[in-house]
Amino acid sequence: MWSCHMALRRLQRIAAPLNIPRSVTSKVQREMSSLPRVYVTRQIPPEGLKILKESGQVQFELWDSDDVPVPRKELLQKVRGVDGLLCVLTEKIDAELLDAAGPNLKVLSTMSVGFDHLSLEELKKRGIRVGYTPEVLTDAVAELTVALLLTTSRRLIEATHEAKTGGWGTWRTLWLCGYELANSTVGILGLGRIGVAIAERLAPFKVKKFIYTDVAPRPELANEINAEYVSLDELAKRSDFLAVCCALTPETKEVCNKSLFSKMKNTSIFINTSRGGVVNQDDLYEALSTGQIAGAGLDVTVPEPLPTSHPLFTLKNCVILPHIASASYTTRNAMSALAVNNLLLGLRGEPMIKGLKL
Asked: pTM for the complete prediction?
């Protein structure tokens, strides 16, 4: 399995710079001009950039910013005639962009596990190979999900605010009380490697039962955490904590809606670290503001960033993070390394480490 710790080990082996004679440099420059052209839509973490620079397999240009995505107009210009494209999830790869790129584009590598920003049918129609970066972010996402669940259920953001603003008075019997994991039922919507990793981390908290739902039972994964397969309705009714881990597809779009929230306990905590589109945010606001459910923790929203004027930000029982589930140095470097290796392998016509089957 591709391990994110491989990236950390690579970062510890930094090669010394080479002193190359000017005549050799000129020859190298001529040879480089005939190499495949690649455009990188974001300033990627150093491990991936190092591999790309030292590969000698491509000539590349990148949008050298981590703060601001490449403007669409510029992106459409930069992709013209490229052989390969390395993108992140902020770039919409659709027919317009693929038309702008032209027939030379043979490989697309996205530094993400999700691919709802890609028009897969268009990519398939044009015979473009697609790489992505699953598995390397499993640990980081699982850790963040547990952190968000605990922060929400134990009302840590509220408590920090009270401590900072003078609300911390005498000890009170029920002030800032939350909900604990011991003897609880944890529901997982979409059981994959991340869902299993979340359950493995929650088990030591003395969770009584894990239940899950998916498009079909997944016995091999479920057996790892002793989880029971249930219907979506049962998941909503029985879960004290409900963690959403499914991909965004036409079938899962806004699957977390008024119908689901109305079946949940008024003591339930809802957590989403998958994609914002699986949740109807108006229905979630209503469920939270009326006490239908106790709290929600979100790492993903629609849109992103969520406008500061959005009603969800007015609720004390809603914790919103800026999509940071995979934001660890080790994981982001491993993602960039995998994305670059997928790209280079694809351009050589070799199997990618992680490629989508279109």
From this structure: 0.88
Angle at 80 between CA 77 and CA 81, to 5 degrees: 165
Tokens of 209: 């039962």
CA–CA separation, 187 and 144 (whole Å)? 17
163 is written with which tokens? 């401590």
Tokens in use for 252?
Answer: 């899962």
SS3 22: helix
pLDDT-derived band at 5 (thresholds 50, 70, 90) equals: low
Contacts of 214 (CB under 8 A, 6+ apart): 190, 191, 229, 246
Mean pLDDT, to the nearest integer, of 322-341? 98
Q: Is 189 helix (H, G, I), strand (E, B) or coil?
A: strand
Of the candidates 186, 190, 192, 194, the one whose C-alpha atom is nearest the C-alpha of residue 220 is: 192
Question: Measuring CA to CA, which residue among 189, 292, 177 is closest to residue 248?
Answer: 189
Which residues are known catalytic residues? 323
Q: Two tokens at 226? A: 């002793």
Q: How far apart are CA 232 and CA 348, in angstroms?
A: 44
Task: Report H helices in the chain.
Answer: 4-11, 22-32, 46-55, 72-78, 95-101, 120-125, 138-153, 156-165, 193-202, 219-225, 232-238, 258-263, 281-289, 329-347
- Judged against a pLDDT cut of 50, whether residue 184 lies above it is answered with yes
Kindly state the percentage of the chain with pLDDT values over 70: 91
Where is 61: in which H helix or E strand?
strand 59-62
231 residue type, one letter: S
> What does the alpha-carbon distance between residue 74 and residue 269 come to, in Å, rounded to a whole number?
43
Cα 218 from Cα 192, distance rounded (Å): 9
Contact 146, 121 (CB under 8 A): no
307 phi and psi angles, rounded to 5 deg: -55, 140
Q: Cα separations (Å) of 288 from 252, 261, 293, 303?
A: 21, 9, 6, 19
Task: Give me the amino acid identity at 279.
Answer: V
- Tokens linked to 76: 């459409």
Confidence of residue 9 (pLDDT cuts 50, 70, 90): low
